[in-house]
Design goal:
homodimer; about 270 residues; Rossmann fold; six-stranded parallel beta sheet; 10 strands
């Protein structure tokens, strides 16, 4: 059995393109449709109810494109909306980034002390802490909201001195006491991998940084296999981009996250409220 | 003649509370209704069409509360939407922050070289440059987008070393050549007054910083007078807060901009899409 339909991926904006990049590397033959809700980004400072409503609209739009699976490439939306989405659209497989990120964090830690860096909403919702605890009840989890990281990544300032200063400030409370300092940090926002070098410079090599993009791509591959949904055409898969606002900015900023230039003319403007 | 109805004020979020604060100081007896579109903030990275649609919805909501005047306390929305708003709702007086800010910049400059710091969308739209040129055709205007300032102000990091580093980086291109350096900087985003001390530290005392909040409040007072819309009740005016998402965050972050604590329970959650 096989299924040539595309995989739908959505995010509040462009950060989820780090996940799309990992999917492309992991699944070279699959067609991918990416939806960025740029008219309403960011989700990370908004309430669970509002983010869930937005995520349901995005999924509905992807289903109009006849996708075989939905990937929530946004930590905030994964944290609050995966339950409602999976229930409402069963048996459509819905994969978020939180569970794979938590799993990778648990696999990486040696001290059972795991830190999670995320947006304000993700931290407030506590989804990572719950996901890690259910996999490893003995783990100690500490969370830190890093709101400025999103703006730094989008400004293209993710790798320089200002990013290091911000990282040092955010990380200080987690690492001030060596007895409780984590040995593993989960980057719980798709924007944050851009800041990984700055974080690593602050922390040195003793702390493992876990980026959920690669582990999410693996989870998607496993789910395709489990549901007999792999494509069997042997040609290179395509990418299609939808955005709810400002295709030019989507293409320009998106290139920072996707790692490959995005042609502005390939980004289709859509309205989720129709 | 007099009019006891409230003045309606709207912004993408909480930054416009710097304008509300100036209105409260200027017009102690007027009732004020403030609407923050926190479900869709920020506007500064979004397209003119989308921001105009959002601004029309916000105005419609304020008119349901029978306001006598609308103040657009958001530079991005003022820059792109004041025309459509004024036309659609004539003869309702609609006051934005761009024209008063431009007027204050022109009044302050001695060298006719004016810099404008604003969001990406405001810079791209060029509304300040047009407004300044129409008041002072001989003025040289240079604009600089400062995206990170919004995040710094909302994080409560607007006055420290990271803010100074960001300000130094953004301001360098404007001030690298003394022969063309501006002597006046218009703070063209309602978030930016929070960063005024950091900007002043980078620039020293030779550059005048213009905050459009106070000049906007004066423009509102003038318009009330001109239209015979001043209230004549002598009691202290009230403030009422509406937000499209996350009243708790509105109250917490909003206090930074309003300069006075806001009680979470006084913030009413509304839906602009109904």
């Amino acid at each position: 059995m096989s299924d040539a339909r595309a995989i739908g991926v959505f995010d509040s904006g462009m950060g989820g393109l780090t996940v799309l990049r990992a999917l492309r590397a992991q699944l070279p033959h699959e067609d991918l449709i990416y939806l960025g809700d740029t008219a309403r980004l960011p989700y990370g400072t908004k309430s669970a109810d509002t983010v869930t409503a937005y995520a349901l609209q995005a999924t509905k739009q992807l289903l109009r494109h006849d996708v075989k699976m939905v990937v929530i490439a946004c930590n905030t939306a994964s944290a609050v909306a995966i339950g409602p989405l999976a229930t409402q659209h069963a048996p459509l497989p819905v994969i978020g980034v939180v569970e794979p990120g938590a799993r990778a964090g648990v696999a990486a830690t040696r001290s059972n002390r795991i830190g999670v860096l995320a947006t304000e909403s993700t931290v407030k919702g506590g989804a990572y802490a719950r996901a890690i605890s259910s996999l490893a009840p003995e783990a100690h989890v500490r969370q830190q909201a890093c709101a400025l990281f999103v703006a730094l990544a989008e400004e293209g300032w993710g790798t320089d001195a200002i990013a290091e200063d911000a990282a040092a400030r955010y990380l200080k409370p987690l690492f001030s006491d060596p007895a409780t300092a984590p040995d593993t940090l989960v980057l719980g926002c798709t924007h944050f991998p851009v800041l990984a070098p700055a974080i690593a410079k602050v922390l040195g090599n003793d702390v493992t940084l876990v980026d959920s993009a690669a582990t999410t791509a693996q989870a998607v591959a496993d789910a395709l296999q489990a549901h007999d949904l792999m494509t069997d055409h042997g040609t290179a898969g395509s990418e299609r981009f939808l955005a709810t606002d400002a295709p030019e900015r989507f293409a320009r900023v998106g290139g920072l996250f996707f790692g490959t230039d995005i042609d502005e003319n390939s980004v289709e403007l859509i309205d989720l409220q129709l």
